[in-house]
From TrEMBL:
[2Fe-2S] cluster binds at C111, C144, C204, R274. It comes from Propionibacterium cyclohexanicum. GO terms for biological process: biotin biosynthetic process. HAMAP family: BioB. The keyword Transmembrane does not apply. [4Fe-4S] cluster binds at C67, C71, C74. Gene3D superfamilies: Aldolase class I. This is Biotin synthase. Residues 52-270 form the Radical SAM core domain.
Length: 383
């Protein structure tokens, strides 16, 4: 990749303009020996729009597993035999404790997730009640919901309860979608995000890399996310859970992952780009470099897999010279963030709260660490 070409891509991004298809492909095709230059360029863009702030998102898995959809990547599908936590709707008291744990340790956004094709009217009302209660108790906290397919009426209910965001990932390119799912279509996913937008909810939608897609298909889905005007773009790296149809897909390398994240940053220069599931599994010792590209990460564990401990997340942020952002009160569904003191202060608070990241670690045959702590279990969360 020529230096002049990378400079041109960076200049476009600094103006808030997305990389072209050809430029995005060039980023993905760069050699391992060029990856640090690509990351540095993406870092210039990230710092231009977001400074050194890092937004911590915290997942609360309200209902796990037993999903009727046949998504090939998903450990929660009924077609999966992955040894994950499986449970129905947790009690509200357990939700409250989970939210409090995330907030106490620096999360500015809590993501309420429930497995399944989509919520019934009764389930939407149930989640809306949880959202409203959290909003009353933590008025500055941003609340993201992720419940599957929505129509306009259900989206409006969530918005009126106080849901700032709705997450529903496109996951892969339309041209690749039939390879990963047969029980719903790519268009169904697009329709849900459009319903959320019409209701006034900020769209949070992203992708999963490493599912056998081509470079062209990665760029295709990244550009499609921009067309949806995604305000938050989570980038997942496939976790090849044993017991899923994609268990043998392990082609990602740390450098490849950093180039994928950089490509997404250059297409979404002024949007929240989040390093999501798979960060620990695939990027390994190069994880701190993620912060140069992404201005958001998940704190602690994911839905069904174990993440880096929350303590290590915060120390990584501090060691890299970044800081944890705290939310400011939102108005009319708009998301705004302000600075927070150095991340080390959050580490100190967590220590004072008696943070416990000990506990058994369950690793499957593919090397994926299964979540055994937090909501839906009898163990303390990994935050």
């Amino acid at each position: 990749m020529q230096v002049g070409e990378l400079d041109e891509i960076t200049a476009r991004a600094l103006r808030g303009e997305p990389a072209t298809t050809e430029q995005a492909l060039d980023i993905l095709k760069a050699g391992d020996d060029e990856t640090m230059s690509v990351v540095a360029a993406a870092g210039r863009v990230r710092r231009h729009f977001f400074g050194t702030g890092v937004r911590l998102n915290y997942l609360v898995n309200l209902k796990s597993g037993l999903c009727s959809e046949d998504c090939a990547y998903c450990s929660q599908s009924l077609a999966s035999t992955a040894q994950i936590p499986r449970y129905s709707w947790v009690e509200d008291g357990e939700v409250r404790r989970a939210v409090e744990a995330g907030v106490a340790r620096g999360a500015s956004t809590v993501c309420l997730v429930a497995s399944g094709r989509g919520p019934s009217r009764r389930e939407v009302d149930k989640v809306a009640g949880i959202v409203a209660r959290i909003h009353r108790e933590h008025p500055s906290l941003h609340i993201c919901t992720c419940l599957g397919f929505l129509d306009d009426e259900k989206a409006k209910t969530l918005y009126e309860a106080g849901s700032d965001r709705y997450n529903h990932n496109l996951n892969t390119a339309e041209s690749h979608y039939c390879e990963i799912c047969s029980t719903h279509s790519y268009a169904d996913r697009v329709a849900t995000m459009q319903a959320a937008r019409r209701a006034g909810i900020s769209p949070c939608t992203g992708l999963i890399a490493g599912m056998g897609e081509t470079d062209e298909q990665l760029v295709e889905v990244a550009l499609a996310l921009r067309e949806l005007d995604a305000e938050s773009v989570p980038v997942n790296l496939l976790l090849p859970f044993e017991g899923t149809r994609l268990a043998d897909h392990r082609e990602l390398t740390p450098q490849r992952c950093l180039r994928i994240l950089s490509m997404v940053r250059m297409i979404h220069p002024d949007r929240e780009v989040r390093s999501a599931a798979g960060r620990e599994y695939h990027i390994r010792t190069l994880q701190p470099l993620v912060l140069e590209v992404c201005n958001s990460i998940f704190l602690g564990d994911y839905l069904t897999s174990e993440g880096q401990s929350g303590r290590d997340d915060r120390e990584m942020i501090a060691d890299m010279g970044f800081h944890v952002e705290a939310p400011e009160p939102s108005t009319s569904g708009q998301i705004c963030f302000g600075p927070e003191p150095d991340a080390r202060s959050v580490v100190a608070v967590a220590s004072a709260l008696g943070e416990d990241t000990t506990g058994p670690v369950l690793v499957d045959a593919a090397g994926v660490a299964i979540r055994t702590r937090g909501i839906g279990t009898s163990s303390l969360p990994n935050v």
